[in-house]
Amino acid sequence: MRVLSTVTGSQGHARAVLPVVRGLVDAGHEVLVALPAHLATVFDGSGARVEPAMPDLVDAIVGEVTKILSGGGDRTLNPEDFADPRIKMMIFAAGPHVTGAYRAVLPLAEEFRPDLVLRDGGELSGVLVAEKLGVPHISAPSGTGNVVDPEGANGLLNERRKEVGLPERTDAWSIYAHGKIDCVPDAYSFAQYPVPPAFTYRQPMLGAMQHTLPAELSALSGDKPIVLASVGTSLPVLLEMQERGIGLPDGMLEPVETFYMIVEALAKVDCHAVVSTGGVPVEGIELGPNVHLMDFVPQPLLLECTQLFLTHGGYNGIREGIRAGVPMAALPQFGDEHHNAGRLAELGLGEWITEVSPDGIAKVVDRVLHDEKIHHNLRTAQRRMLGLPGVEAVVAHLESLAAGTAGARS
Predict the structure, then answer these.
(1) Could you tell me the pTM of the whole model?
(2) pLDDT digit string (tens) for 18-42?
(3) Could you tell me the CATH number of the domain that includes residue 315?
C-alpha cells in the first residue's frame, strides 16, 4: 500500500501524524510525507520518503490575511470574519491557502499514485488531492481539527474546489468522508462540533523511548512533587507571525509576559518546577531556587514522574498528560486551547486558569496538586486510554480503507 501524508503547521501537527507513519512503514507500506521544509526533521529515521513540497503555512496565512484585511483576496471573505472564532478557524483550515497547497502537492501525488491520503487534521489540501485521485482520505488526531466546524469548512472548501476544477460536495462531513483517527476514548472526545465517531488507538509515547531524563532532573529529590510547565510547539509560530506584522489573537497576552508569570508563579509553589522555554527569549529572567529552566525536555518521559502538568492546552500535550495519568492546570493562549481547557475542566481532569497572574497561577497549581477527585478521574481516564488498541490496529484499518473493505471502528 502507498500512503501520501500531508502535514502543515507546527511540529506538534507533525508529531501527531508520526506514530501512524512509523506504524505503516514498519508494516512494510510505502509512505510519502509532503510538508513544509521546517517540519522535515520530525520524520528523520521514520523510514518514510519526505518531500518539502508543502508551502509554509505562516507565509501563506500572512499573505492571505493581509489581502483580506486590506479588502482584497478572496471575495467570499471579509475583515469582519476574523472577529468570529468559529469562522476564523474555518478560514485557517479551508481558506485560499489550501488551493496553493493543493497545486504544490498534486504533481507529487500523481507521480506517487497513493492508495490513501493520511492528513494532519488541520490540513485540508489532502482532502482535495484524494478527491482528485479518487482515493480515500483520513485525518490524524488534531487539536485544530477538533475546533473546525466541518459543515462550515465544507462551504469554504467548495470555493477551493471551484478554483481547482473539482465538483462541489454537499456532505456536511466531507472532510471526514472516510473517517478520522483519535487517541482518546469516545467518552473523552475533545471535538467541539458534531463529527463521525473516530477510529481510536493508544498513543505511543515516542519521546519516552528515544530519550533519557537529563541528569539535572533525574537527581531531583522525591520529597516534593514535580510540576512540568510547557508552552508548546505552536508559540514560536505565533512569534514569527508577530514579526511579520500579524497581531496576536484577541485576548492573548504577550507570550514573553505569560512565560515570566509562569516562572514567578511556580517559585511560590512547594515543588520542583521544570519549565520548558519553547523558544521564548529568557535573557535576564530571575529564577526561584526550585525552578529549573530548560530549552528542551523529553516531555512524554518526564510526565511519567510528574505530579502536575501546567500546559498551554495543546491537544498533543493533553493526550500525553492523560496517557501518563497526570493532573493538569491549563493556561490557554490561542486556537483550540481555550476549548481544550474548558473540556479538561468539564471532564474533571484539571482546571482552567482564569486569573492570569503569578498568584492566580500558583493558586490553581497548588489546588490541583491536592485535589484527590481530579487524581481519581485521571486514573480512570488513563486506564480507559491504555485499553485502546495499539498503532497496528490503525494500520489494519487503513489497509481496509484502501481496499474498500473498512469495517467498524475500534
Answers:
(1) 0.90
(2) 999 999 999 999 999 999 999 999 9
(3) 3.40.50.2000
